[in-house]
């Protein structure tokens, strides 16, 4: 009877299925049309609206299908019909797959293959996205729809969940004195949505059978409330255990073992980047050793402690304020071995003034991630058009002002986490400054659901300063001989290190006023 | 017994909807559940249909515990309720098309006959049907598979007399083919149909009895006395609604017996000039017994 119920649902809801399918197809077509450079800009906004509308459409469609045979209540006709609850549930799941996810899969597949990617790659990306949307969105929506009577109740329920979690997180920030949740802005922030997704999936897996086989609406709603209450709990976690989990998930943890960090006064002082007026900046000269060639070390988090000789803790905080990745510990090497760098530590004025002249013990606990180069490819800077296995389909062009090389790539699945791009002239060996585009995201599974199963990334490489103030080693006259060198990096190990400086006076290592330049470790 | 309830309790929060309800429905009977609003009639039916589970106690339908009623049993049970929510967007014919495959015994000729007799417009959406038409629709969906048991929960509620008669006529035509369990306030209508009756009050069964026994047992008795009548200070418990007007004394005798009636009356009121008896309609039986229960409750 599964097919019979499914056919009835389809007959009743085909106009809605057609609308949602049209939105999915339009979404894929728009992102395909926007191409490598996401042009025209106005269309990007339209495409983004369509990408979000897909999720609204899925929610409406799933709710409509589930609520054709309402579960809460005692007056529904189907309750007194010889309809197997198992068949009913299977028919609804079949409908979700066929009416909501099959069009998504086909639209993704069509976009991937139309963009010239192989059927296997396109299908893998489309399946991955579909599986995630199914598990972490469609099934939870199905569960909510199974506990409610109308679409309005579903929307109200989803809004209530969102509002509750948001308020709880904001309350957590306020309780911590305005400090963001520990993973915010870090490569580990995947843990929060992953935790929510797992909670939503677990709740759905409990609620759906509970509703279909026992019609236990009140207990089902209690499970949902419990999941919502648990959702903000991860933000109460501290950094160390979460990073321990991330370390455990490292693809190649041994690769970071040789790496050491040492305080090396011989390197000397460095000039400062503009610092906030209420803080004082110390730049510690560090020697980072044991790096393999073509590697990058990202500082996920560093906590500094100042301890007086008698053991009194004077100060304990992160090395830099705020969330995200500052350039407080820039380490990258092409050749490997040792590199010199400066660790930026920002102290509040009152703390700095208190201890600047004192001899104190400084300890820094690092949570670091080692990236290894995954691929290095070249492409012509003018109208380049190349396909790379690791980086996808890339194109280049000169921008309208004639001072930038624009690089745009389309890839099935997610974009590379970290890429570096430079313009070089192999004929004379000149290179323009390398630009890095790193957005650490250490999700241990392929997590890409937006805007569709493909992703786009790119870079602008300036070769001429229209104001005439700067000159570039590879300028416009060399473009015919030049090439864009594109490297992608992926994380191989997450690890911790502790730097201990037994005696230090902060004022000895205060930043020197001058032109911003701390990237001394870069080649 | 096609339906049997044994000490069934159902609580909704602190409210006891059923309090130790026990009754049995003989196969082939037309069994009426009668009671005031809140007596527990609809709750009883929902328990029997496994729409809700009893808090404690057991009930069986077609020999199966109601908690385990499955599609196999539901394929033999027709159900019509004033509150039945059918999918409003579907048309009459589309819904019948949908239901048909669920019943192996669906009789298409009977379905067509019902649609014609009940004048149901096949292409009209269910949500556009009037209340009466929806009840007809429910009946048209409940009969074509020739159920062993037909459960009717207030099927005549809110219907105009014409539609009520149409439904009743249709039910009476099928009455001999199946067991009917009906709850209704429309006692005059169901009296024509009913073979057995159960009185519910406050979630409990007051009694159940075959209709023939009940109408034989309960009679209105009119006693003509020689002198002016007065309601006796002490009346037998089996006399209800005792009234005296002029030299006439009337009451409802709940243990009526033709043979010893005169002697029993004389023992209470003295010399009797004349006694006549009248059968009582189900509606009057219900109101008499309901009042008696209410008065008894007020006393205790």
Distance between the termini of chain A: 68 Å
Shape of chain A: globular
C-alpha end-to-end distance of chain B:
35 Å
Please name the CATH architecture of the largest domain in chain B.
3-Layer(aba) Sandwich
- Radius of gyration of chain A (Å): 27 Å
- CA radius of gyration of chain B: 22 Å
Number of helices of chain B: 10
Taken in chain order, the helices and strands of chain A follow as HHHHHHHHEEEEEEHEEEEEEEEE
What class, by secondary structure content of chain A?
A: alpha+beta
Describe the structure.
The complex is a heterodimer of chains A (about 525) and B (about 300). Chain A is of the alpha+beta class and about 525 residues long. Chain A has 9 helices and 15 strands. Chain A has helices at about 1-35, 40-65, 85-115, 120-145, 150-175, 190-215, 215-230, 240-250, 350-355, and strands spanning about 260-265, 280-290, 295-305, 315-320, 330-335, 335-350, 360-380, 385-390, 390-400, 405-410, 420-425, 430, 435-440, 455-460, 485-505. In chain A, strands 3, 4, 5, 7, 11, 12, 13 and 15 form an 8-stranded antiparallel β-sheet that branches. In chain A, a hairpin with a 4-residue loop joins strand 11 (about 420-425) and strand 12. Mean pLDDT of chain A is about 90; it is low at about 515-523. By secondary structure, chain B is an alpha/beta fold. Chain B has 2 domains: about 5-210, P-loop containing nucleotide triphosphate hydrolases (Rossmann fold), CATH 3.40.50; about 220-280. In chain B, the strands form 3 sheets. Chain B has a 6-stranded mixed β-sheet. Classes of the chains: A alpha+beta (about 525), B alpha/beta (about 300). The interface of A and B includes residues 4, 77 and 82 of A.
Task: Please give a quick description of this structure.
The complex is a heterodimer of chains A (523) and B (300). Chain A is built from nine helices and 15 strands.
């Amino acid at each position: 009877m599964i097919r019979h119920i499914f056919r009835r649902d389809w007959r009743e809801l085909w106009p809605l299925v057609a609308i949602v399918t049209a939105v999915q197809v339009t979404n894929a077509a728009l992102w395909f049309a926007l191409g490598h450079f996401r042009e025209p800009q106005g269309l990007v906004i339209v495409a983004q609206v369509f990408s979000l509308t897909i999720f609204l459409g899925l929610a409406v469609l799933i709710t409509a299908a589930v609520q054709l045979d309402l579960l809460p209540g005692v007056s529904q006709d189907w309750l007194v019909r010889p309809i197997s609850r198992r068949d009913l549930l299977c028919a609804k799941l079949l409908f979700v797959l066929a009416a909501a996810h099959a069009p998504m899969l086909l639209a993704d597949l069509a976009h991937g293959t139309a963009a010239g990617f192989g059927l296997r790659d396109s299908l893998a990306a489309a399946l991955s996205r579909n599986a995630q949307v199914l598990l972490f969105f469609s099934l939870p929506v199905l569960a909510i729809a199974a506990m409610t009577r109308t679409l309005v109740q579903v929307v109200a329920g989803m809004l209530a969940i969102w509002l509750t979690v948001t308020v709880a997180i904001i309350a957590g920030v306020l309780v911590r004195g305005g400090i963001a949740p520990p993973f915010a802005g870090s490569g580990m922030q995947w843990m929060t949505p992953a935790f929510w997704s797992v909670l939503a999936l677990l709740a759905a897996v409990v609620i759906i059978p509970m509703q279909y086989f026992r019609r236990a609406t009140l207990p089902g709603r209690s499970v949902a409330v419990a999941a919502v209450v648990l959702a903000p709990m991860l933000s109460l976690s501290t950094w160390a255990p979460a990073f321990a989990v991330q370390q455990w998930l490292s693809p190649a943890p041994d690769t970071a073992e040789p790496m050491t960090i040492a305080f090396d006064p011989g390197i000397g002082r460095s000039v400062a980047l503009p610092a906030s007026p209420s803080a004082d900046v110390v730049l510690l000269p560090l020697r980072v050793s044991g790096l393999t060639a073509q590697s990058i070390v990202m500082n996920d988090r560093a906590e500094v402690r100042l301890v007086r000789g008698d053991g009194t803790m004077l100060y304990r905080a992160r090395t830099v304020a705020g969330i995200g990745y500052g350039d407080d510990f820039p380490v990258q090497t092409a050749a490997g071995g040792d590199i010199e760098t400066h660790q930026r530590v920002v102290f509040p004025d009152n703390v700095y003034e208190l201890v600047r002249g004192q001899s104190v013990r400084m300890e820094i606990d690092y949570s670091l991630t080692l990236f290894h180069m995954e691929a290095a490819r070249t492409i012509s800077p003018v109208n380049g058009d190349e396909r790379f296995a690791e980086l996808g389909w890339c194109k280049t062009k000169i921008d309208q002002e004639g001072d930038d090389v624009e690089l745009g790539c389309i890839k099935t699945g997610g974009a590379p986490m970290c890429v570096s791009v430079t313009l070089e002239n192999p004929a004379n060996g000149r290179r323009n400054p390398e630009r890095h585009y790193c957005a650490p995201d250490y999700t241990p599974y392929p997590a890409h659901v937006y805007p569709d199963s493909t992703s786009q990334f790119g870079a602008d490489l300036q070769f001429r300063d229209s104001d005439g103030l700067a000159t570039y080693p590879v300028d416009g006259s060399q473009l015919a001989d030049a090439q864009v060198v594109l490297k992608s990096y992926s994380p191989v190990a997450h690890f911790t290190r502790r730097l201990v400086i037994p005696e230090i006076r902060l004022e000895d290592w205060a930043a020197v006023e001058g032109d911003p330049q701390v990237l001394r470790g870069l080649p | 017994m096609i339906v049997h309830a044994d000490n069934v309790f159902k609580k909704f929060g602190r409210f006891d909807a059923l309090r130790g309800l026990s009754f049995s429905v003989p196969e082939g009977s037309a069994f009426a559940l009668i009671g005031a609003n809140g007596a527990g009639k609809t709750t009883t039916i929902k328990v029997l249909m496994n729409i809700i589970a009893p808090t404690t106690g057991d009930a069986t339908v077609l020999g199966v515990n109601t908690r385990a009623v499955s599609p196999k049993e539901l394929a033999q049970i027709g159900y019509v309720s004033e509150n039945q929510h059918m999918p409003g967007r579907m048309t009459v014919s589309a819904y019948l098309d949908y239901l048909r495959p669920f019943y192996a015994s669906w009789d298409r000729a009977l379905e067509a006959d019902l649609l014609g007799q009940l004048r149901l417009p096949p292409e009209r959406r269910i949500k556009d049907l009037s209340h009466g038409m929806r009840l007809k629709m429910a009946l048209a969906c409940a009969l074509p598979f020739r159920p062993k048991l037909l459960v009717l929960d207030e099927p005549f509620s809110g219907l105009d007399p014409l539609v009520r008669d149409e439904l009743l006529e249709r039910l009476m035509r099928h009455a001999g083919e199946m067991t009917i369990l009906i709850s209704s306030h429309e006692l005059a209508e169901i009296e024509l149909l009913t073979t057995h009756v159960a009185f519910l009050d406050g979630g409990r069964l007051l009694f159940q009895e075959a209709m023939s026994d009940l109408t034989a047992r309960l009679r209105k008795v009119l006693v003509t006395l020689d002198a002016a009548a007065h309601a006796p200070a002490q009346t037998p418990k089996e006399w209800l609604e005792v009234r005296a007007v002029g030299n006439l004394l009337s009451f409802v005798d709940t243990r009526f017996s033709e043979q010893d009636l005169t002697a029993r009356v004389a023992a209470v009121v003295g010399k009797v000039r004349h006694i006549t008896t009248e059968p009582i309609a189900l509606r009057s039986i219900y109101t008499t017994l309901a009042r008696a229960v209410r008065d008894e409750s007020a006393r205790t």
